[in-house]
Amino acid sequence: MATAAGVTLLNKGEQSLTDASNNAVASWKIKSEQMKKADAIRDLEQTKTKISTAERERNSHIFNKRSEFRQLFCSLEEQDTKFTSMRKEEGVRIWQDLDRMKNMVSKFHNDLTNMKPTPDFVEKLKITIEEIEGAINEFKEKQRTIYEELMREEHVIYQEILAYQNRMDAWGKTPGAETVSTKSGRPKPPTSTRDVTKNLPVEVAEFEKFVQQTGGLRGGWDEYDHETFLKIRNRFKGKPTFVEATVSELPGRTLVDCEEHEAWYQTFLDYSEKKKTAIHKWKLQKEAEKSKMLTDVEADERKKLELEMKKAESRAKIAERDKQDKAARLRAWKEEKEFVQRQEIEDKQNQEEERRKKIEMQSLQREQQKLYVDEYRIQRKEEEEFLRLEEEAGKIVESERRQREAREEIVRFQQRDQLKMFEKKVNQRLREKEAEEKQKRLEKLKQQVEVQADRDPTRLYKMTEGWQNRMKQTNDPTVQPAVKIPHRAIPAWRQMNS
Question: The whole model's pTM is what?
Answer without folding.
Answer: 0.30
